[in-house]
Design goal:
By secondary structure, the protein is mainly β. Helix content is 0%, strand content 66%. The chain has a 10-stranded antiparallel beta barrel with strand order 1-2-3-4-5-6-7-8-9-10.
Length: 151
Amino acid sequence: MSHTFLLEEGRWTFKGHWLERQGLPVPIAGKTLIAWGQQSWFTWVTRLEFPQGEHPQMTLQYRGRLDLGDRFYNFVLQHSTLGRVEGEGWIAPDSIVQQYQVISEDDRQSQRRNGFESLHRLDEKTYLFSGGTFVGPALITTMEATLQRQG
């Protein structure tokens, strides 16, 4: 069984929880769209909402290049909260793992941030997502979710 997330175009729903260092888990839901263009370039757009209105909506727009047969890729991400982000990803047999560094942040965030994301395949239509953001060595936010392929 090969990966269907990222390696194939598709629409996904996103449902899970957002956690902050001093808070309780907060429900989060959204949608993800994966599209492929010419010369092995992909676009990955995710829009996340907090159904109970605890935080403003988040939009994540990834763009990267992954040649057929490669397991490693680089990407840039425009994140509505973090700003411009650069990272790399690895395609493992059962997971897609990414790490990133925030390149430009808004004026409210003066400390260097970085993070990780892991997508573990359960089956062709279901992935488990976990990720987190760090300031220095401190984990300040984390998110867990299930992604379901639509159609």
